[in-house]
């Protein structure tokens, strides 16, 4: 089945240079000693903010040899493209709008602390970009009040659009209800996986799931080393497991809760200092192998959100290693939900992710030529995956998008589906212990909250 067309718009290689005045005013913020930033807006998409590096005004060109740095991205589906192209026909040319500020980001007493230097508008012609790359601007633009007098500030940027086809999967129900998973392509829905939610036998912490009792015993001994073996007193949620099967019934991926989600002492929440964790597992060499680890907790303060960290686990040919590469670390709103995102350029807020566009990160491929055997020389680049997560108490049927270059086999796609299920289930696992869970998530009555 064909993937869905997507387009990725990237804004990068930002830089700013400002002529030095002979007698600089004391009230002016000088970028050589203070940071600069910009706000980037594309119609109907969330505003993104990025830091703008300052370079000396005597530099006439963008620094040679500098790797392409991504400051912001916008991901457009086919429906987004159709809507934006239609609006540009009837309402004038579509533009990317950028406001450049000197001074620090943020607000003080409700007033923006940055000083607006100028605004830039870059026209976008998105027709045909789902099949070919287009560069809309690459170079310097004059900004500020002196833009037409030859003595203005200069702003450097690169704006381009590239095809970014993705496989799209949709859970047909909440993960704890053991749903089917469909692949979506336009109006076509085709079943590709089934999920089985279960509880690990709490009497045997080395046995991962009743649904995989046929697994080789050698695969069980290492599992507990990733989680906690302590019997913690007090409230805890533990033993959850979800196995992904292909249509023939063979298990192709799994998510297993290896560290219980436990209320911190004197509270009814899972703390960042003692998070619960999941292992995402893939079959290989007749056994299960850990692919990634997901940690989750409940943030304190005004955000009161779901904090998470996902890291990729290298294969060490049977040896154990806790070292991994962090691919995603952020917070989701407990009330509104959001998108879990792995993007090796920037995240949805415009901030750099722990792995940048040039960091070597191994793909979860099963091929010996591209997968575990070459760790860490194979790479993830650009957008990797996203998964929708609903807020607490809302019906959740996760939608999962995976970039085509990162799916070489069924197990690749299944690993991302299992990860999406784990982050969705973490929203329930991190609910305040004063709240009740639905019955499908409770093996014992005392786990209801």
Automatic annotation (TrEMBL):
Which ranges are annotated Low complexity under compositional bias?
209-227
Renumbered to this chain, the Basic and acidic residues biased-composition regions fall at 228-239
Q: Where is this region: Disordered?
A: 203-240
Please give the InterPro entries that the UniProt record associates with this protein: DUF1005
Q: What is this protein called?
A: Formin-like protein 18
UniProt source species: Manihot esculenta
